[in-house]
Design a protein that fits this description.
The structure is a homodimer. The first copy, chain A, is α/β, with parallel strands linked by helices and about 425 residues long. Chain A is built from 13 helices and 14 strands. In chain A, the strands form three sheets. In chain A, strands 2-9-8-7-6-3-4-5 form an eight-stranded mixed β-sheet. In chain A, α4 crosses α5. At the A-B interface, α1, α2, α3, α4 and α5 of A face α1, α2, α3, α4 and α5 of B. Chains A, B: InterPro entries: Aminotransferase_I/II_large, HTH_trans_reg/aminotransferase, PyrdxlP-dep_Trfase, PyrdxlP-dep_Trfase_major.
Chain lengths: ~425, ~425
């Protein structure tokens, strides 16, 4: 189903190599944007708030097309939300999330992602950090978390911040290595089966079944992060793990940040009934939902079919960008690179067959005005590197900018 | 400055009594609203989302007047925010909070609360649970937190949830007992000096100075929660602790939930420079700001003077309600009760001089259709009780409803 990649070198359960040839990696978010640390009282209050660098062609994997955002409709939803809920604006809402939003979300998840749940199982949240924070409190007796290696470092760090032990489990072209998982002592595993982050591999059906069997046999929990599950461009959809789960072992996490906008910071989690029961025994302050106003707006957005319409629109948009990017890479970078993860999601992975380090490639791209992203932070442990791997997001770039960007990469990497 | 109360019975450093005559207390938020635990898939998706019970006269201390919320202006701010920031809607924002909002907030805090800080010291957050979560990670080597007794249980629980040891320090009519604090081993103290929650006492200037000296001498941190600092109805304002702090020992926390609406779930924290520096050394995933759209809207709301105008409006509104409530209580409940905390804030404390338990008083009020709130959860330890104490919020009730409510209390408590 996927192009063979050959980058998974570590054997199951292994993972400690001392081969990484470079130490200094480029942070995926510019550090200067993360904290404003100048302690000068005289600082300019009107520094632009954007993290976008207009002068760069930025293959930012977290960016979306800002023109695709339905400003007028969203404004209308906000206005309606405020007006129709005006008598509730003076009160705190349900910390688990507004009942109305959870109800329409349950319908959406059933219809579109095969996730079968009641509104009572849904916890509306303010992002992955929040969701993982709750899960580590709920599952506080199981401190060993198996984690995709390479995997989404921001989520891995949340487990570490919350005092968990993280067991890196190598990823192959079928997702997380089940043999390695089975031999680990983990009681929780975090996976991205729809489109593994960052490699892009998709977990086939038989592996999903085997993963569920592992969880059932061990009374373990699977955290299924379906972060960009709405974006599948080729082939038949594979059912979510949650939809195949008959024993309440899957915790499903989804987000509005990929389809609509990351600016709302709104996500959701579907807990198995047993964990909802456990949650009810915790101090209720552990929960705090995002803005009620935006939750009400999101409810109307889904109810009035804008959500489905928007998904179709951006899926088509990003499918085009995705195909265009693959075409550009094939045409301009051709035999110098190898692409993986090209059937889904909002980014691709690219191995660059050149005797340069990742840092050298990123630096020379940056000098040419192009930002591409590192793979290194996604690894917990050091690992053997055949070819440097970079990843490129395409959702935030126009076709023209993409073309300019790839041509610049061709020039700076292979023609100079 | 404040009416003598006589309710502080525990001596400094003590606090363990076995006097509490009642075990079953009414939760301050109805439990049924906190979790929807029915696991029936068939649940009605259109259950109303409000936590307000229209048929009750509810002296809810967390409620605000929903009619005071400037719907039209806020809609305009949201619309402008989306339109003027449309090119940023596809990107994540600064996890510390939008620079523009932090800049206008720094101005506001300096002008109105005497809090002197740079925008770089401000962390925009999604509520107290989030802020305390960050602080406990930042101050992870100091696990002993002195906490007002009685104090705000929701905040206390956050310290406990994050693995801190909480040392209850008794509160008197000048705020937290400094003698008890000085003899404790605490390295952090959480205080609400503007209007102690829940007793309503205000910390006088000399006590503020002494508290700062304690922090300086011990290199300790003071967490100043100025949750309703905008609401002072009588007497000269007393400077915030942060404004008196010359050694960077005060962490100042404020919220938009009391002046504007709790539905946004937006607050902020001002960190001393040293802690901002420490924050920069933590994994940046520890931070996640609320919705960018609402942050942009809030920035415009403050910039365009709507914030100041709104504070004046609601301060006048709540001053009237406050005076009216005190008058009603004096007229109808008279010598049966004793009120404290009447100079500030959005709630009062009322001792009921009757040989009934708090539960009995709350239950009989509820039977008459009036919700008043318990004091018990605010205590960490058991304590001697002279008279049952209840607290009544007034911001969410019209003058007419207040009058009906107090008359009903008179009837059910003292005339039957």
């Amino acid at each position: 189903m996927l192009t063979a990649e050959g980058y998974v070198v570590s054997k199951p359960r292994s993972g400690l190599f001392v081969v990484t040839p470079y130490k200094h990696v480029i942070a995926s978010i510019p550090d200067t944007e993360v904290y404003d640390l100048s302690r000068k009282i005289t600082s300019n209050p009107h520094i632009p708030t954007s993290v976008k660098h207009a002068d760069f062609i930025d293959f930012d994997p977290t960016a979306l097309d800002h023109d695709a955002f339905p400003i007028r409709t969203w404004n209308k939803m906000l206005k309606e939300a405020l007006e129709s809920h005006s008598s509730m604006i003076g009160n705190y809402g349900n910390p688990q999330g507004e009942q109305g939003l959870r109800a329409v979300l349950a319908d959406y998840l059933r219809n579109s992602r095969g996730v079968y749940c009641s509104p009572e199982q849904i916890v509306i949240g303010v992002g992955m950090a929040y969701s993982i924070g709750i899960l580590t409190k709920l599952l506080k007796d199981t401190r060993s978390v198996a984690f995709e290696e390479p995997g989404y470092n921001l989520v891995r760090d949340q487990f570490l911040l919350n005092g968990c032990e993280v067991l890196p489990i190598s990823v192959n072209d079928k997702g997380v290595s089940l043999a390695a998982l089975e031999e680990s002592k983990a009681q929780i595993v975090y996976v991205t089966p729809s489109h593994q982050f960052p490699t892009g591999s998709i977990m086939p059906y038989p592996e999903r079944e085997r993963l569920l069997e592992w969880a059932n046999a061990r009374n373990a929990y699977i955290i299924e992060d379906d972060y960009d599950g709405e974006f599948r461009y080729l082939g038949k959809p594979i059912p979510s793990l949650q939809s195949l789960d008959t024993h309440g072992r899957v915790i499903y996490i989804g987000t509005f940040s990929k389809v609509l906008t990351p600016a709302l910071r709104m996500n959701y989690m579907v807990l198995p009934p047993k964990l909802i029961e456990q949650l009810s025994n915790m101090p209720h302050e552990v929960l705090y939902a995002p803005s009620r106003v935006e939750q009400w707006a999101m409810q109307s957005f889904i109810e009035q079919d804008n959500w489905y319409r928007h998904i179709r629109k951006v899926r088509n948009l990003y499918r085009k960008r995705h195909h265009h990017l693959i075409g550009l890479i094939q045409n301009h970078l051709g035999q110098h690179v190898e692409i993986t993860g090209q059937n889904a999601g909002l980014h691709i992975q690219m191995a660059v067959k050149k005797c340069k380090t990742t840092k050298e490639l990123i630096d020379s791209a940056a000098e040419a005005g192009v930002k591409v992203y590192d793979f290194q932070k996604m690894w917990m442990n050091q690992h053997p590197v055949h070819y440097p791997k970079l990843y490129l997001g395409f959702a935030g770039l126009s076709l023209a900018d993409m073309e300019t960007g790839i041509r610049l990469l061709q020039k700076v990497w292979f023609m100079e």
